[in-house]
Write a structure and sequence with these properties.
- Helix 2 crosses helix 11 and helix 3 crosses helix 6.
- An 8-stranded mixed sheet has the order 1-4-3-2-5-6-8-7, with helices on both faces.
- 46% of the residues lie in helices and 13% in strands.
- The structure holds S-adenosylmethionine.
């Protein structure tokens, strides 16, 4: 059922910024996107034209790592200005989302509660108040989101779900670029799977670290008969996500669970996905979760995790660019995660090396679909990760 066909209300309709708040959202969106796109290009130019030659004359060689590029760039005023805009726009995008959430919070809670009781589309929501939230989530406000992924302030709270979703919308410019698809990652990987493996028909799908489930829902457009499951540690984001899925007419079974201890039976899933997830974890947790993925995957199944590309697949400048968040955006695990060999991580978790892959798939919202066959045959490359492409790592097992 499409969203327009359901009579389930959309909880997002209760997010009602005033005219001034909306203008602020738009300003922050444009500022952040300016830094991430336009300033990124100029910064690379400054590196090539100034910082790199200076480093070479001092060391007799080019920088070889992201950290060396960071050291070479550290005094560059344009880079410092870029960092300042990135940091401040990140902080502002959540701060200016809080008021409209707080104003309507009782109604939001009531709506999510009613939807969870009635379950009109047949999904479910199972929370576990006794579950210990991992310290790597509770210890700091990851990517400067106040309250991080997990906080709850009142009974049946949905605030954190709404805050992260609306703040994320500001981040990626949902208001100023109305065509942007919030579930673009899931849509792009789902489309890729249907083109690459036309006979693949998953019966059960699991999304790990789902938050609102926005990147899980598109898989159900490609595989409408599949049973969809989603786990996360954050109760408020799950309540919000469940309300959104039911509104979209998609039955998703949301559970509050630490993915290090996934308690589904062996070989329970045909497709296991995640997006923007593993870079939030210490490598010890990543290893445990990948081992669960191997245990949970049925023969013929596929695992596909969208993530940042690893350091060994990027040049030193890109490594500097991607690892910026480690020191400037409360993302303590980015750099360590990216320093891993993803094939080693997967084989250590029990996957056969031959079954593992890494690739970058085009964003279907912006890529010319007529070029897709040429992309699949290797004649055309996908755009770089974050610039029209999405990096994924995973496996297809026999
Ligand atoms: C950056 S968000 C990604 C959200 C979503 N997948 C998306 O595409 O937008 C990372 C999510 O992982 C969740 N998470 C972190 N550690 C987890 C764990 N050990 N088990 C389950 N979820 C976890 C967080 O609560 C958060 O919602």
């Amino acid at each position: 059922m499409a969203a327009s066909e359901t009579s389930v209300p959309d909880i997002d309709d209760l997010y009602q910024p005033t005219h001034d708040e909306r203008s602020r959202h738009d300003f922050i969106s444009v500022l952040r996107n300016f830094a991430k796109r336009d300033m990124r290009d100029e910064m690379e130019h400054r590196f090539e034209s100034t910082a790199r030659p200076a480093f070479e004359s001092e060391h007799g060689r080019a920088p070889e790592t992201g950290r060396e590029v960071a050291a070479a760039m550290s005094g560059d005023l344009y880079y410092r200005f870029y960092s300042s805009i990135r940091y401040n726009s990140q902080e502002m995008m959540y701060l200016h989302t809080m008021d409209p959430v707080e104003r309507k919070l009782p109604e939001m809670i009531e709506m999510a509660r009613r939807i969870a009781e009635e379950r009109p589309t047949g999904g479910s929501l199972e929370l576990n108040p006794d579950m210990e939230i991992p310290r790597y989530v509770t210890a700091l406000d990851i990517h400067l989101a106040p309250g991080c992924f997990h906080s709850e302030y009142v009974e049946d709270d949905v605030a954190q779900g709404m805050l992260l979703a609306q703040g994320g919308g500001v981040a990626f410019g949902a208001n100023v670029h109305r065509m942007r698809d919030a579930g673009g990652v899931g849509r792009s990987i789902g489309y890729y799977l249907t083109q690459k493996y036309p006979d693949f028909r998953p019966e059960r799908i699991l999304d790990i670290g789902t938050q609102s489930g926005k990147n899980l829902l598109p898989y159900l457009d490609f595989y409408p008969d599949a049973e969809a499951h989603a786990v996360d540690v954050g109760p408020a984001t799950l309540r919000y996500g469940h309300a959104k899925a039911e509104h979209a007419g998609k039955a998703v079974h949301f559970r509050q669970m630490n993915a290090e201890h996934l308690d589904y039976p062996d070989q329970h899933f045909d497709l296991i996905v995640s997006s923007f997830f593993f870079h939030e974890l210490p490598v010890t947790a990543t290893k445990k979760i990948l081992a669960h993925c191997r245990r949970l995957l049925r023969p013929g199944g596929i695992m596909a995790h969208m993530e940042l590309p690893p350091q060994n697949q990027c040049d030193p400048y890109l490594n500097f660019y991607w690892d910026w968040d480690t020191r400037n955006n409360n993302e303590p695990f980015y750099e360590k995660f990216r320093s891993q060999d993803f094939f080693d991580l997967m084989t250590e978790a029990g996957f056969e090396r031959e079954s593992c892959f890494t690739t970058t798939v085009p964003d279907v919202g912006t890529f010319d679909k007529e070029l897709y066959p040429a992309f699949l045959s290797g004649e055309v490359e996908a755009p770089l990760h974050g610039r029209g492409g999405w990096f994924i790592f995973g496996a297809k097992i026999d």
